Records
---
Amino acid sequence: MNLPNMLDAKKRDKNAVIDNYQYKEVKIDESLVGKKFFVRTYGCQMNEHDGEKVKGVLTSQGLIETSVLEEADIIILNTCAIRENAHDKVFGFMGLIKKMKETKPNLLMGICGCMAQEESVVNEIRNKYKYVDFIFGTHNLDNMISVINERVTSGKQNIEVYSVLGNVCEGIPEVRDNKYSAWVDIILGCDKFCTYCIVPYTRGTQRSRKIEDIIEEVKGLQKLGYKEVTLLGQNVNAYGKDLYSDKTLADLLRAVSDTGIERIRFVTSHPWDFTDEMVDAIAECDNVMPYVHLPIQSGSDRILKLMGRKYTVDEYIDLYNKIRSKVKDVSITTDIIVGFPGETEEDFECTLKVVNECKFDGAFTFVFSPRENTPAALLKDDTPLDVKNDRLHKLNEIVNKYSNEANQKMVGNVYKCLVLGKSEKDQSKFMGYTENMKLVNIISDDNVIGKIIDVRIDEAKSFSLNGTHVDE
Ligand code: SAH
Ligand code: SF4
Ligand code: F3S
């Protein structure tokens, strides 16, 4: 048993040596070999990718994945802590599993991911949710089998969570959700400590993977037929800072570009670390896709300062314009929080003004949610929730107007799309993405899954496009 501690999670020891190590296989208890498991993942792309590792480790031990909850002998919830509603979803789902356990006493359920790193959540589960069998954290995913084995042999709830700086474990088995587009971690954790955000506490210090390890992974994916990699990090633009004195994201992008893989993407970019060299690398490498997710969070300098974002609106707009002018046909999306503590009507108007000026291709918008132990949770917040919700609604209308406008401009033109599978809504169609990351539902007479094809855009909506496969 080892419990998380938020104060330890906050520590950053610049002199600590953080070593990379190789995944060490642990055999799962014999009683579980051949059993079925179900994994549900919440949250960001990095967590999606962690979900692929959870599946990979279990599969490597002879367990079989099922997508049917009722069939499962082990259920794992890979959780997110970014906002309160992420919590609510998980606790809601746990209630359902409790019911299942009444008729299936040997069913095991475990929790991992960012909620597992939260002290209050783990204490609550220890006291009130005794039917949760095991918990492991973001720092010991590679050792999850030991955590499960301990639960099986002891017959007791087993919690094994560490609030440490973190390490990089290479070679964790993975079962990837898609055969043509793959996630690749490049930098774990985050040291930015934006005042509203829990991620630096749940994911530990910022640590980069070595360029050679990343390149090896990309080459391996290429051999398997992957056409696209998305380089992942909470702030990919800080890549290398903790590891190299002379290598940055720009060098990494060029090195990955040299592998010749068809498409390279990267998320998420913090404006603070975005250098001219990085803009040039994106502009100059043909296989680095023209798409940048560049969260602004607020259009008010006063609020940005309170958020600890370390840039002004003018600096953001300069960077935004630089990317727009240098990277051909680029699309740029953003994240915005409304109702940060003390946000006035005036501050909110500033946010609308920036959105009207930038005309983003899309934006993820959120109402501020106070998170345990973060500085912003202690700020006085006297804006009523209905006012915050009104602001969100108003913002979304403007955001959607601009994404629709950007999409309408594409109608009639032909774009290259990587087809990832069948369309979710209509199985007779395919779905793929343009180079600038627009989702397209595609009509084609051929089986085009896994191919990069030319698509004429016939119709545009706010969140997707409809198109037809055409010959080159
Ligand atoms: N690392 C990324 C963001 C990761 S979290 C970055 O810095 O850009 C994704 C988004 O969730 C953030 O950009 C922010 O808009 C939102 N978010 C994070 N913490 C939040 C909170 N406490 N309340 C509401 N939204 C939040
Ligand atoms: Fe959170 Fe800020 Fe780090 Fe993004 S950069 S993960 S918002 S602390
Ligand atoms: Fe959520 Fe953790 Fe990602 S809090 S957004 S799953 S890093």
---
Amino acid sequence: MTALTAASGSAHAAILGVGAYRPRRVVPNSEVVDAIDSSDEWIQQRSGIKTRRFAEDDETVPMMSVAASKQALDAAGIAADQVDCIIVATVSHLMQTPSAASLIAHELGTTAAAFDISAACAGFCHGVSLAADMVRAGSSRHVLVVGVERLSDITSPTDRGTAFIFADGAGAVVVGPSDVPGIGPVVWGSDGEHYDYIRQNHDWRDVIASDDPQMPHLIMEGSAVFRWAAFEMAKVAQEALDRAGITADQLDVFVPHQANNRITDTMARSMKLPDTVRIARDIVDAGNTSAASVPLALERMMAEGEARSGDTALLIAFGAGLAYAAQVVTVP
Ligand code: UT7
């Protein structure tokens, strides 16, 4: 047998820069309530959401991704041609193939490896884990991870369980080599028994075969997902702390998927997070942007001084699949 040369990478990986793109159009609850017989008060009490952003025609998945990526690259001090791989987490790039990532790579001016991943709201944290492993294993030195959604394209404005929640935006990070561990071990998994809890309402083949084809949209069993997220995900978050070798009182920042402020509160209580831990609340004016929610929330905390360079942050994301992923990271 002929021996092959093995790849070898950096001993450690870290997030080197963060970027975000928030669509221009701010949509208050008053714009969505009539179609779902709801109220501003109900939406705020049950989810925490006051406003969200909906993308306009030119704010496409690639356009928002490129804007967020440029900001992340600038923050990291890395040029696009230094990126070896681009991972895009999304469920709302409405071209089955090719990937959004290959177009984003081209628009950034690089021929880096590029592919999309589909893990719904958990996609970004999956991407960060893959990127860290790639940097350590040596298949890439710098990896750009993007979480991006235009959920307004696949949300029905008359669906009472989702119309007030889902929204649009993009977040990105650059993952690269580091002298010390900056991305802790991932805790991830899937619970496919509940595949139906959050899903597209119809398979494309059924839509095409229908006499009255309608754009498919997302549907969700809200209370079942709520219970799963609030209780099961607190255990996953705790395991991510354990695997990183830290305790809750060593945490500075908690950045959970922005699904519902009440889920965030329940998780923080179950984990007995001390009051000193600063908690992301981007959902209040971003809504639930699925794969984009964790990087958007992190970027905002950094921009507002709530997350500072060197802080220890717990990320956790969960959603359709049901899929989840959590890791502790150092804020760049
Ligand atoms: O991103 C992926 C992960 N997603 C999540 O984690 C989302 C998890 N789920 C949730 O965040 C919550 O389940 C929702 C915010 C979606 C809904 O809140 P809820 O407290 O679970 O509401 P519910 O479905 O249990 O309904 C409670 C009540 C019902 O009325 P009655 O039976 O108590 O009289 C509903 O008919 O609220 C009513 N209701 C509404 N009222 C006004 C349900 N939807 C609405 C609405 N506006 N849009």
